[in-house]
Amino acid sequence: MEKEKIPKVGVGAVILDESNRILLVLRKKSPEAGCWSLPGGKVEYMETVENAVIREIKEELGIDIAIERLLCVTNHIVQSESVHWVAPTFVAHIANGKVQNKEPHALQEVQWFPIDDVPDNITITTEYALERLKG
Questions:
Q1: Is 33 exposed, middle or buried (0-12, 13-18, 19+ CB in 10 A)?
Q2: Which of 92, 94, 95, 101 is deepest in the core (most CB within 10 A)?
Q3: Which member of 44, 59, 109, 131 is catalytic?
Q4: How far apart are CA 42 and CA 40, in angstroms?
């Protein structure tokens, strides 16, 4: 029996520092392995998107974030990988902790970039969020 194909819900955060740099993670896993992405992950059953992004960032990067606002919702569809995510993306800042790669099995690297000088190989959700952020 073929698995039912339904969209999944993921969350991400545009985390900016006082120098207006953005925090990105280099993905090791599908979707879009080898691309820089906003940190985040999947929403669990009965979890709000806000709680999910806070939890996912803590698990991935070891930091507590404060959500400032909802930035956008991305239709993250990658037909070549048979992937379909609906991804609310929030603007947030670090409330506590120091950034570290807590998931080296999934993230190759974690790095701050000037908002106007991010790598070319960014994920669909990152590209869309940056367009919305810059207006």
A1: middle
A2: 92
A3: 109
A4: 7
- Residues 86-100 have pLDDT tens digits of 999 999 999 999 999
Q: What is the pLDDT of residues 50-62, one digit of tens each?
A: 999 999 999 999 9
Sheet holding 107-114, edge to edge: 36-37, 21-27, 107-114
Q: Tell if the pTM clears 0.90, that is, is over it.
A: yes
CATH number for domain 8-134, candidates 3.90.79.10, 3.40.50.300, 3.50.50.60, 3.30.450.40:
3.90.79.10
CB count in 10 Å sphere of residue 60: 20
Coil, strand or helix: which one is 14? strand
Q: Which residues of 84-108 are buried (b: 16+ CB within 10 A; e: fewer)?
A: ebbbbbbbbebeeeebebebeeebe
Question: Is 127 tagged catalytic?
Answer: no
Query: Residue written as tokens 């996912």?
Result: 56
Dmax over CA atoms of the chain, in Å, equals: 52
Mean pLDDT of 18-36: 96
